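Would you mind giving me a polypeptide sequence along with per-residue structure tokens?
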Amino acid sequence: MTEAHESAAAADDVRFMRRALELGERGAGRVAPNPKVGAVIVSQGTVVGEGWHAEYGQAHAEVNALAQAGAHARGATAYVSLEPCNHTGRTGPCTEALIAAGIARVVYAAADPNPTAAGGARRLAEAGLDVSGGILAEEAAYRNAPFLFDASGAARRAGRPFVTLKLALSIDGAIVDASRQPGWLTGEEARAAVHRLRAEADAIAVGIGTAVADDPALTVREGITPRVSPLRVVFDRTARLPLASQLVRTARERPVLVITNGSAPAAEAALGAAGVHTLAAPSTRDALHALGTRGVRHLLVEGGALLGSALLDAGLVDRLVIFQAPVILGAGALSAFAAFPSQRAQQAPRLRVLERKALGADLMTVYAVSGD
């Protein structure tokens, strides 16, 4: 193969893998605890089949793409956004489906770190298929970060779920103006993106200050309908969540968990009588560990300033999502990081940007945070 042909083939690999990644997003909110996976079958440069994992417990992306390709799959190339699984769970191994269909080449993005499902690339290679990995691996890892955090054992080592901290800020870094009256900073497109974040989380958390000031519902009301409604969590040491709040009034419809320090048994009992679950934890880290043992793999934290700063300071945040509105709130406004310890400019860690895009007049920036 000439250098020009090699370059064209590499460009095709990237193009078809990007399509597989896009297809995988169609399973957002519906496939957890499984990963989002897309697949594209290509024969002689033409797409003959596409598929994605659409629903937990149903067929995987490769199987759906092969079904669409039919006989055209023989001798074709399969592009898959995650290494094909090599085990039998709720469905059969995708490796065997690819082999049986006569696929000649498999290109995948990210390796599967799950010891139960891993080994797909090796199985395919042993069956005589041409196997390549690592195409757009970083983008694939970004899209499936909570799954990879859990599957790789990082969650067990850290003793907690993958944590995303989301904040809506003004240009000058404030989350609310000097009046402290609740109100929207960002526009409709940014708020729709927040609902997508919620749909992909196992639990949504706020601090008691935000719960009292904003009286949020913490539900998914736009776009994706999640397969399982996220658990709603309030970090509330003394159990002072108002009984008249939206969260308490709807606790029997969608679960609410209030995390306390155990110092207010009467208040906890009153919340319990209203259908709210309570959990006493001596520290924020212990609270996150308890959430993990309850099946929370991905926790979305929506503020406020005290909770977000405490999590960042303790190294308990993996991803920071900032929605910045084109407004300046000025003197007296509450800084999102007012409770975060001061840092010297030259020593402060520089966060890595994973994504940045405009949403209407607002700007969304996603940062990787080291976590613990």
Summary: The first strand starts at residue 38 and ends at 43.
